[in-house]
Amino acid sequence: MTSEFALKNARIVLADEIVEGSLVVRDGRIAAFDSGASAVGLDLDGDYLIPGLVELHTDHLESHFSPRPKVRWNPHAALLAHDAQIAASGVTTVLDALRVGLDEDADLNAGEMRRLADAIDAGVAAKRLRADHYIHLRCEVSAPDCADSFALFSDDPRLRMVSLMDHSPGQRQFASIESYSIYYQGKLKMPDDEFRAFCARRMAQSAEYSSRHRAILAAASRERGIVLASHDDATRAHVAEAIADGISVAEFPTTMEAAKASRDAGLAVLMGAPNVVRGGSHSGNVSARALAEAGMLDILSSDYIPFSLIQSAFFLGDVVDTISLPQAIAMVTKRPADAISLADRGEIDVGKRADLVRVRIDEHVPVVRSVWREGERVA
Predict the structure, then answer these.
(1) Can you name the residues that pair with 25 across neighbouring β-strands?
(2) Residues 6+ positions from 126 with CB-CB distance below 8 Å
(3) Which of 26, 59, 217, 374 has a beta carbon 3.0–4.6 Å from 31's, enabling a disulfide?
């Protein structure tokens, strides 16, 4: 039986323009849209209608599974709580980032990450999730257990993306030992002598394992056709290494130099939406807004605050003269969808999935009023 409904009196955000008009959804797909007044359909009262957001890198699920040190929540319940917040933020497709390779600050183990992945697989199979969930593995290549932990996920059909990370001190995100100290020493409450020993161990592990694990994981990902991402590249040498590994997405480059080199090499540059909203990086690295103004930003990710994704898109469309609202919305819809080869979503066009978000702006903040995934209301 055909399922059909219409939406009218909407400001529809298309790929390169905004039209005031109506849209028809049939059997979960966009069947038609048109400018001008319509006599039929749900009246959106002039609100924006945008594509459902596509999130490539959020570690927000972990905070529901382990809300306090040593506390564990039922993984299925944690996933449902995470999923509800994601959907209410306008996200209809999400890659849940699970860590592989545990550094010393981690209060989680590889088996627990596998339990979360199993919960995602079960939630998708049972059709109890609002958003469309996939898996992104954040691989700490300097960790001794990285390759063995990766093997727990290598056959998961929902695995779409792998990022190669090294958070050891003195490089990439933490090129400054001072910034590393502020983050880790403050987080772990270490006295100075213990922190120095911690740094020495992390740097030794990086020297021993990083190159070996990068090669193993990059080769395994390429063989399966999984999208590879670099993480926190800071120099042209880092970018050259990423290119050699077959990487296509540059996540969170820490300098303008690395972002430009990535862009010149054809990599999609991804930055954090919280960085945009806050006006800078919490680690003191390059500002995402500066990259946007320089035309070197392709994709935004909510990282650790789900609502920041839609907030940052409307913010960029408002404050950066060279970025229109349709271009900003593409950074959280079409461009991330294209990066992981999901060609059926990410834009409002005939034949695409009816993943749609109704948005009203109030006090300069986007208010998500309704969310549809494949034509079904989910928030």
Answers:
(1) 5, 30
(2) none
(3) 26
Q: Which CATH superfamily is domain 52-346 in?
A: Metal-dependent hydrolases (3.20.20.140)
HEC sequence for the chain: CCCEEEEEEEEEECCCCEEEEEEEEECCEEEEEEECCCCCCEECCCCEEEECEEEEEECHHHHHHCCCCCCCCCHHHHHHHHHHHHHHCCEEEEEEEEEECCCCCCCCCHHHHHHHHHHHHHHHHCCCCCCEEEEEEEEECCCCCHHHHHCCCCCCCCEEEEEEECCCCCECCECCHHHHHHHHHHHHCCCHHHHHHHHHHHHHHHHHHHHHHHHHHHHHHHHHCCEEEEECCCCHHHHHHHHHHCCCEEECCCCHHHHHHHHHCCCEEEEEHHHHHHCCCCCCCCCHHHHHHCCCCCEEECECCCCHHHHHHHHHHHHCCCCCHHHHHHCCCHHHHHHCCCCCCCCCCCCCECCEEEEEEECCEEEEEEEEECCEECC
Query: Which tokens is 120 given?
Result: 């995602």
Backbone phi and psi for residue 266, each to the nearest 5 degrees, phi listed first: 90, 10
Its pTM stands at 0.92
Name which of 93, 151, 22 is nearest 339 in CA terms: 93
- Alpha-carbon distance of 112 to 97, in angstroms, equals 13
Tell me how far CA of residue 158 lies from CA of 62, 94, 132, in angstroms.
18, 11, 10
Give the separation between CA 95 and CA 93, rounded to whole angstroms. 7
Question: Distance between CA atoms of 288 and 179, rounded to whole angstroms?
Answer: 18
> Which residues in the chain show pLDDT less than 70?
103-106, 170-189, 280, 282-284
Every domain of the chain and the residues it spans: 52-346
